[in-house]
C-alpha cells in the first residue's frame, strides 16, 4: 500500500484520502481504488506478485492504448515494477449486463479489432509466461484439467488413451496457432469487459499471447455463468466475422467449427480452475460454476467434438458423475449457515443454496470508521477498528439484537431438519462495520451451535473461510 500511495502522490500531487481494497477474482494480485477528497481523481492501484507478469500487462496496455483500443491507461509504475496505477473504469462489468445483446455485439466487434489492429506491431517476446499458445501450452491446460478436476471426480480412466487424445488435441491447436499471427487475450470473458458510459473496455489480458482468435470467442461465448444460448452464440460469431472481414477474408462457417474446437479446450481448462479453486480452496464462486461447466461440456458433446475417441467415451461418464462434484454434494448433511459482509452499493449477496432467504442486517446507522483517515485502509478485522467500534458500545447492542433473531432461527432450523440459512451484514463499503459484525456472528454461531457448519464470507475483502 505504501508504494501505491506514493505513486498516487507522485502522479496527482496529492495524497489519497480514500483507499479501498477491491474484490479479487481468481488471481493473487490486489486491486485498490485510490481517490482524493470527495472522490476526485479516482485511480486503480495494482499490487502484483510477479514482476514479469506486471511487465507484460504494462507493455500490452500501452501498446493497445497507442492503437486507440479501449483498455485501462497505465499512469505510473513503481521503480521495482511490482505496483502500478491505471485509469479507473468503474465497477460495472459486461457480466452484470449480459442480457444486453447490443453490448455483447459491441464486445465481439471490439474483439475483432484487438485481434487485427492490436496484433499489428506486437512484440510477442513481451508476453507472459510464453509467447504463443502452442502444443506445450495446450498440454499444460489439459493436464490442469486432469489433475485438478478429473482426478477428483472418482471415475476411473485409461491414462494412455487419455494422453493420446490430449496430444492429438494439442497438435491440432498448434497447427492453427502456427497459421495465425494474431494476439489472443486468452481469458476473454464478460467479467473481464468493463462498461463505462455505454462503451466496452477490455481488462485482464496479461496472460495473452499469439494464438487462435477462435479461442477468445470460445472463452467469451462458452463462459459457464454467462449461460448464452446456442442461437446467441451462433449470431455473435456471425457478428465477429462481419467485423473481421474489414481486415481479412473470413469464412463464418469455418470460424464456427474452430470455435467449437477451442470451446472444448477452454471448457476443460476452466474445469481445472474450478476444481482447484472450488474443490481444494473451497471458494463458493468456483463451486457454483462446476455444474454449469458440465452443462457446457454436454452441449459440446451433443454438437460433436471431433475425432477424439477416448474423450468421446470418457467425458459422458464424467458428466454423469457430476452430481458428486457439484456445489452441495460435499458429504455434509447438517445445517450450513452462511454469514456474509457486503457493501450495499454492490448489492445483497446471492444465496448459493438457491433457497433465497435469510436475514439481512443494515449496519449503516452506526458511526463509520471509514470516515476517519486512520481507519480508511483498515478493515473490521483490524485491532484499531475493533477498538473504535467497541468503545462506543452501540455495535454490541446491535449484535445482541441480531443474535437473538439468528439464534432462534438456527435452533428452529436444526429441529426441523433444514440444511441452509443465510445471514448477511451490509454497510457502505463492506469494509468496517459489516466485516466486524459478520465475523462476530459467525464465531458466535459456531460457539453456541458446534454441530452447525459456518461459512464466513467477507465479500468485498475477498475472504472466505469455513469455521
Characterize this entry briefly:
The protein has 467 residues and is an alpha+beta fold. The chain has three domains: 2-87, Phosphorylase Kinase, domain 1; 94-324, Aminoglycoside 3'-phosphotransferase, Chain: A, domain 2, CATH 3.90.1200; 336-466, no CATH class. It has helices spanning 2-12, 51-66, 101-116, 135-148, 159-179, 213-221, 230-244, 252-280, 284-303, 309-320, 383-392, 394-416, 433-448, and strands spanning 18-21, 30-35, 43-47, 74-77, 83-87, 183-184, 193-196, 199-202, 209-210, 336-343, 359-362, 420-427, 453-458, 463-466.
What's the structural domain tally?
3
How many H/I helices?
A: 13
> Low-confidence stretches at least 5 residues in length (pLDDT < 50)?
324-331
CATH architecture annotation of the largest domain: Alpha-Beta Complex
Shape: globular
Report on this structure:
The chain has three domains: 2-87, 2-Layer Sandwich (Phosphorylase Kinase, domain 1), CATH 3.30.200.20; 94-324, Alpha-Beta Complex (Aminoglycoside 3'-phosphotransferase, Chain: A, domain 2), CATH 3.90.1200.10; 336-466, no CATH class. It is built from 13 helices and 14 strands. Helices cover 45% and strands 14% of the residues. Residues 324-331 have low confidence and may be disordered. α6 packs across α8 (252-280) and α9 packs across α10. It has 467 residues and is α+β, with helices and mostly antiparallel strands.
Amino acid at each position: 500500500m505504501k508504494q501505491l500511495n506514493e505513486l498516487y502522490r507522485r502522479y496527482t500531487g496529492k495524497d489519497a484520502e480514500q483507499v479501498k481494497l477491491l474484490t479479487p477474482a481468481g488471481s493473487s494480485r490486489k486491486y485498490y481504488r485510490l481517490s482524493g477528497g470527495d472522490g476526485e481523481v479516482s485511480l486503480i492501484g495494482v499490487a502484483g506478485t510477479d514482476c514479469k507478469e506486471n511487465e507484460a500487462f504494462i507493455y500490452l496496455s500501452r501498446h493497445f492504448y497507442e492503437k486507440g483500443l479501449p483498455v485501462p491507461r497505465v499512469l505510473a509504475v513503481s521503480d521495482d515494477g511490482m505496483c502500478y496505477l491505471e485509469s479507473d473504469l468503474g465497477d460495472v462489468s459486461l457480466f452484470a449486463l449480459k442480457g444486453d445483446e447490443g453490448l455483447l455485439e459491441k464486445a465481439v466487434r471490439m474483439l475483432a479489432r484487438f485481434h487485427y489492429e492490436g496484433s499489428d506491431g506486437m512484440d510477442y517476446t513481451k508476453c507472459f509466461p510464453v509467447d504463443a499458445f502452442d502444443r506445450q501450452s495446450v498440454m499444460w491446460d489439459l493436464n490442469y484439467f486432469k489433475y485438478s478436476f478429473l482426478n477428483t471426480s472418482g471415475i476411473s480412466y485409461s491414462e494412455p488413451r487419455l494422453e493420446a487424445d490430449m496430444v492429438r488435441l494439442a497438435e491440432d491447436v498448434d497447427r492453427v496457432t502456427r497459421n495465425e499471427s494474431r494476439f489472443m487475450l486468452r481469458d476473454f470473458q464478460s467479467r473481464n469487459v468493463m462498461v463505462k458510459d455505454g462503451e466496452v473496455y477490455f481488462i485482464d489480458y496479461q496472460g495473452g499471447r499469439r494464438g487462435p482468435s477462435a479461442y477468445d470467442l470460445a472463452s467469451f461465448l462458452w463462459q459457464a455463468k454467462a449461460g448464452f444460448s446456442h442461437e446467441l452464440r451462433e449470431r455473435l460469431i456471425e457478428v465477429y466475422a462481419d467485423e473481421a472481414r474489414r481486415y481479412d477474408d473470413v469464412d463464418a462457417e469455418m470460424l464456427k467449427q474452430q470455435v467449437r474446437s477451442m470451446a472444448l479446450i477452454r471448457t476443460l481448462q476452466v474445469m481445472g480452475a474450478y476444481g482447484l479453486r472450488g474443490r481444494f480452496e473451497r471458494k463458493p464462486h468456483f463451486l457454483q460454476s462446476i455444474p454449469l461447466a458440465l452443462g457446457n461440456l454436454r452441449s459440446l458433446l451433443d454438437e460433436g467434438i471431433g475425432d477424439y475417441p477416448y474423450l468421446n467415451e470418457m467425458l459422458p461418464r464424467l458428466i454423469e458423475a457430476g452430481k458428486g462434484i457439484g456445489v452441495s454434494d460435499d458429504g455434509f448433511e447438517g445445517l450450513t449457515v452462511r454469514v456474509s459482509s457486503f457493501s450495499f452499493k454492490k448489492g445483497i449477496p446471492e444465496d448459493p443454496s438457491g433457497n433465497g432467504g435469510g436475514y439481512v442486517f443494515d449496519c449503516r446507522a452506526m458511526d463509520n470508521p471509514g470516515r476517519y483517515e486512520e481507519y480508511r485502509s483498515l478493515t473490521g478485522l483490524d485491532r484499531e477498528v475493533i477498538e473504535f467500534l467497541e468503545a462506543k458500545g452501540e455495535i454490541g447492542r446491535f449484535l445482541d439484537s441480531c443474535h437473538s433473531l439468528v439464534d432462534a432461527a438456527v435452533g428452529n432450523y436444526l429441529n426441523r431438519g433444514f440444511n441452509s440459512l443465510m445471514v448477511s451484514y451490509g454497510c457502505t463499503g463492506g469494509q468496517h462495520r459489516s466485516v466486524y459484525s459478520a465475523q462476530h456472528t459467525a464465531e458466535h454461531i459456531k460457539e453456541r451451535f458446534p454441530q452447525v457448519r459456518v461459512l464466513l464470507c467477507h465479500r468485498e475483502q475477498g475472504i472466505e473461510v469455513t469455521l
